[in-house]
Structures are given as structure tokens and as C-alpha cells.
Amino acid sequence: MSTPIKALAAFGSKQALQAYEYTPGPLGDDQVEIAVESCGICHSDLSMLDNDWGISSYPFVPGHEVVGKVVALGANTKRHKIGDRVGLGWNSGSCGACPQCLSGNQNLCPTAESTIVGRPGGFATRVRAQWTWLNPIPEGLDANKAGPMFCGGITVFNPILQFGVKPTDRVGVIGIGGLGHLALKFLRAWGCEVVAFTSSDAKRAEALELGAHRTLNSRDSSDLKRAAGSFDFILNTTNVGLDWNTYIAALKPKGRLHTVGAVLEPLDLAAFPMIGGQKSVSGSPIGSPATVDTMLEFSARHGIAPTTETFPMSRANDALEHLRSGKARYRIVLENDLGD
Ligand SMILES: [Zn+2]
Ligand SMILES: [Zn+2]
């Protein structure tokens, strides 16, 4: 289809979104076009809107947690047929030929295409992606809530697989927001002892409801110090600088502090505690398409879904403000009311 796509775009950094129409041109041979049903909002949409990472181009169409139905197929696409319901996340393409792609780590492809970098995303009536990066939504998952699985969800599910987190592990989660709330749900279902690091009493009750067995106050250094040597894995989902050395101290020997939160300032880390306890610090992006399938299957089996608030897509500016103010509980999903 090369009929115009109705979208919402910002025409400069930190500007409000406005109606924007574009004609996508011929569909690539390896591309699929989907009619957007809903699209989650991720913090990365805000970072890109604000050009925090210096890679934004305008007009900028946000949206990389898309659920929709396949409406057009390129000549060389596989896996999907017209009418299938699929999801699209941060990546919309990869080369298919580099060692990472060939080994099933397409999420690490150095030339991977990102859904909202230099191309229009899912705050729109339709969006395109390479067929590889669209995953069928399994039966048993609520399609209206599935969007946030494709960026927020996979970002926290991926390290559980990558680093072999075991059901017998004691795992800590820093930050109970869009990513952290899903981490609590996944890790609880995984079988771990789950501890949420929270900064307020209000969040404490929420964390327990979401799946944490208990909480620790991240603002209370004595709470953290008492936890020394007790965690196998600590997952940071926030993008703020923390007292990293205290978290390293909270790890057992061979423990890992892993960040999926894009902390902008350099991490301040002492080497000795890492050497003595053979501890690791690491990071990871979203997962490969196969890992996304695994996450969706696991979520359907355990009844895991993001906790969402919904806005009509036409009110995306209000929804972005709601996210910016830190009031989202826990992920916002925009329902397409822009047309087809
Ligand atoms: Zn590649
Ligand atoms: Zn995202």
C-alpha cells in the first residue's frame, strides 16, 4: 500500500505532536505493513522526542510498542499472512548476514534499523518493518495490553535468559516503573525470590502487589548495607545515577549488577569489590526475535500482562505529559483513533 499514512509527528525537539501525513513509497521486498491497533509509550519515545541522544530527526513520529494487523506483504517476506495480529518493538530491521544475525542475535546487529530512528514509528495508522521483527501475538495474550511487551517487556525479559537467572536466585529490581513492574511479574513467575528496591512507602505496597516478595528502601543506606552479600542478580531499570558500589556490595560472590536503564552519566565503580567477589556489571538492549517469541509464550502461560492505562492516540500529547510527570501506572497504551 502506498496510500498516505496518517501519523502524529513533532517538528522539532521537545515540541508537541501534530497531525502529519506521509506517503511511504513502495513496500520493500522484505517488509510487512501493519495497520496499527494500539501503541505503547516508552521512555525512549520521550528521549527521542527531546533529542536526548542526539540521533533524532524531524518530523519525528514516535511509537515502538505497536500491535496491529498485517495489511501488506513484500515479495520476500516469511512467517506472516494478511490479517495476522503481530507486534513490533524497538527494532524494525537487521542485516541478516553478519555474525550476530547469523547466530540468532539479531538484536546485536551493528546495522540494525530502529523503528523510530530516521524513520516513522507507530503513532500512526500504519507502520512498516522487516518481517523478522514482527512477532505473532499468541492466543491467550490480551492484544490491547501486548504492545508494551515489545520494548519494555523484552528489555527486562532478555537478561533473565542471557545470564541464566535461576529459579533459586534472589533477584533485586531497582525502579518500579514501565520496565520494573514487568520485571517483578516475570521474575516472580520464573520462581525467583524477588526483592523490589523502592524509594517510597507508596510504591512499597504496589511492588508487593506486582510480585515482589519484599522490598528494600533504596533511599535508606542502612537498609542496603544490611543486604550486603545477599543477591545473585540485581536489575536496574532506572536511568538515574545511583550509589553503585552499595549495590555491588549487596551482591553475593559471582553476583551480577545489570542495567537496562540508560544511565547517561558514567558509572562510578570501585574495582576491588568486583575482583574479590568475582562480580560483574553489564548491560543489554532488547532481545532477539526468538527471545520475544519465548517471552510471549511464557507470558501467555503464566497470565503475565503489563499493567496499563489507555489514551486515544489523538490525545498522545496528554499521554506523553502523563508519562513525563512520572504518574503512569505503569505503561501507557494509545489506541488508534486516527483512522485506517
Ligand atoms: Zn546483522
Ligand atoms: Zn522502548
UniProtKB/TrEMBL annotation:
PROSITE patterns: D_2_HYDROXYACID_DH_1. Its cofactor is Zn(2+). GO terms for molecular function: alcohol dehydrogenase (NADP+) activity; metal ion binding. Residues 12-334 form the Enoyl reductase (ER) domain. Pfam families: ADH_N, ADH_zinc_N. Its EC number is 1.1.1.2. InterPro entries: ADH-like_C, ADH-like_N, CAD-like, D-isomer_DH_CS1, ER, GroES-like_sf, NAD(P)-bd_dom_sf. Keywords: Metal-binding, NADP, Oxidoreductase, Zinc. The keyword NADP applies. SUPFAM superfamilies: GroES-like, NAD(P)-binding Rossmann-fold domains. Belongs to the zinc-containing alcohol dehydrogenase family. This is alcohol dehydrogenase (NADP(+)). It comes from Prosthecobacter debontii.
